[in-house]
Design a protein that fits this description.
Layout lengths: L3 H15 L6 E4 L22 E5 L2 E5 L5 E5 L4 E5 L20 E7 L2 E8 L7 E5 L6 H4 L12 H8 L6 H6 L9 H11 L12 H22 L7 H8 L18 E5 L2 E5 L1 H4 L11
Antiparallel strand pairs: 1-6, 2-3, 3-4, 4-8, 5-7, 6-7, 9-10
Helix pairs in contact: 1-6, 5-6
Length: 287
C-alpha cells in the first residue's frame, strides 16, 4: 500500500512536470474508479494544472478555480509515465513481472501521459473531481500528518494517549494520524521498541516519548529519503529501506534476533521479539 513518503515523492514529481500544462485528454478504462459521475475527469480537459498536493495517502492535482482531481491510490494503485510503461520500468513492478493494468490515462499534450494503475485483484483506485478536496470522504476524515513540520506533540497525544486500542492500529488509523500504513507502522514500532499489540493506554511517559519520536523520525526521514527518487523506483527504494517490515526470518538489525510475522487485521506484519515484546512470540494466525 502506498504511504505518505512515497505519495509525497509522487506528488512532487507530478507537480514538477505537470504544473502549467493543460489536460488535453482523459481515457478511463475502468469506470468504477470514477467516484463523481456528474463530474468525470474529462470535465477538466482544457484546464491547466496549477499544482499538485498530497493529503494523507491521496494525490491532489489542482486545476485552479476549475477544481481538484483527487486520486486515492487505495491498496495497490500507483501512477507512471506512459513513456516508461514497459515491463522493466513500470512503477511498483518487480523485474520479470507484467506491469499492472492501466485503469485511466491523463494526457498533457507534449508532456508524458500519466497512467493510473492498480495491481490488485479488486479495484481500489478511485478518482474524484471536486471544488474542495475535503469533499472527498477519505480527505475529510484525515487526522494530523506526522510528515507536516507543524505536527505537534499535542496532536500526537490527542490521537494516542489513553486509548484502549493497539498501538499499531492507532498508527494506521487515518482519522488519528494521516499517511501511515502497515509498513511504516512496523518500522515506527521497531524504532520505538514498542509492542505492536500493546494498548496505547498501557504506555508510560517514557514509552510515549519514544513512540512520538519514532513516529516523527521515521516518517520525516523516509520523506527526505524518497524525495527526488523517480516514481518507477519508489517501491524498490521503500522495500530496501525497511528494517523489519517484510523481513520475517531475517536477523533484526539491532539485536540479531529473528524478525517474526504476526497476524494483523487482514494481513501480516513484522516485529522483533527481543526488541519489542520481551521475547514473547505473537500469533501468526488468530486463535
Amino acid at each position: 500500500m502506498p504511504e505518505s513518503p512515497e505519495v509525497q515523492a509522487l506528488a512532487e514529481e507530478l507537480g514538477a512536470r505537470l504544473t502549467g500544462r493543460a489536460l488535453t485528454g482523459v481515457d478511463v478504462v475502468e469506470f468504477r474508479i470514477e467516484k463523481t459521475r456528474a463530474r468525470p475527469p474529462e470535465s477538466l480537459v482544457g484546464e491547466r494544472v496549477t499544482g499538485v498536493a498530497r493529503h494523507g495517502k491521496l494525490v491532489d492535482l489542482v486545476f485552479g478555480s476549475a477544481g481538484h482531481l483527487v486520486v486515492s491510490l487505495g491498496r495497490h494503485g500507483w501512477a507512471r509515465w506512459a513513456a516508461t510503461a514497459d515491463g522493466s520500468k513500470a512503477s511498483g513492478v518487480e523485474s520479470g513481472d507484467p506491469p499492472p493494468p492501466t485503469l485511466a490515462t491523463l494526457s498533457f499534450g507534449d508532456a508524458d501521459d500519466v497512467e493510473l494503475t492498480d495491481a490488485g485483484d479488486w479495484v481500489s483506485l478511485g478518482v474524484w473531481v471536486v471544488d474542495d478536496p475535503r469533499e472527498v470522504p477519505a480527505v475529510a476524515k484525515l487526522g494530523p500528518d506526522p510528515a507536516d513540520p507543524a505536527f505537534s506533540r499535542a496532536e500526537f497525544d490527542a490521537a494516542v494517549v489513553g486509548r484502549r486500542k493497539q498501538s499499531k492500529a492507532i498508527l494506521q488509523e487515518q482519522e488519528s494520524l494521516a499517511g501511515i500504513g502497515n509498513a511504516y507502522s512496523d518500522e515506527i514500532l521497531h524504532v520505538a521498541k514498542a509492542s505492536p499489540v500493546a494498548h496505547a493506554a498501557s504506555l508510560d511517559a517514557r514509552a510515549l516519548d519514544a513512540l512520538y519520536a519514532a513516529t516523527v523520525g521515521v516518517v520525516r526521514g523516509a520523506v527526505d529519503a524518497r524525495r527526488g527518487v523517480p516514481i518507477d523506483r519508489l517501491k524498490a527504494e521503500k522495500v530496501a529501506a525497511m528494517r523489519v517490515h517484510g523481513r520475517a526470518g531475517e536477523p533484526c538489525p539491532v539485536c540479531g534476533d529473528e524478525v517474526r510475522e504476526f497476524s494483523f487485521a487482514s494481513t501480516t506484519a513484522e516485529y522483533c521479539p527481543t526488541c519489542q515484546t520481551g521475547g514473547e512470540l505473537l500469533p501468526l494466525r488468530p486463535a
